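#onboarding

Welcome to the new folks! Below is a worked example of what a typical request in this channel looks like: someone posts a single protein sequence, and someone else replies with the predicted structure as tokens. Don't worry about understanding the tokens yet, we'll cover that in week two.

Example request:
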Amino acid sequence: MLCTRSPAEDSEGGRNTDFNILVHLLHPKLFEGTPARNQAVYLCGKRGRAAGNTGVMTVLKSTVLFVLAAMAEIGGAWLIWQAVREGKAWWWAGLGVIALGIYGFFAAFQPEAHFGRVLAAYGGVFIAGSLAWGMLVDGFRPDRWDVIGAAVCVVGVGIIMFAPRPGG
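Example response:
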């Protein structure tokens, strides 16, 4: 599991490396050959998220991964829907299956070590993301209950992923 160093450790010679952390998270090959002490992301081992590590970069990484996961899963399901229900070519469904496979990798890169917790939290992201996808792609207009329900789910995501827990 990947986790960021503490903000105090993220400064090398007074220069904050938050941008480097984000770049490394999104494109790790850019840091190949860089000595470990200069890398912005470290392996935390089996435990996953470092004790108390719910800092800005951890939240940012989780948020980016949840958004990418939602785009892959919802987009993949939408592509399959288009092939099956709307009469699009079969290869739309094939692309959908590929997108759904990619979704699984985004979930696996979450800094949280527990699969059940990540997937439970992702459920809330999926709900809000599905409504947003429907609005942007299909012209769906949610009613106030859709919006309230999605907001409750997003608050739940924050609680599940970032609430302080005993032992870290």
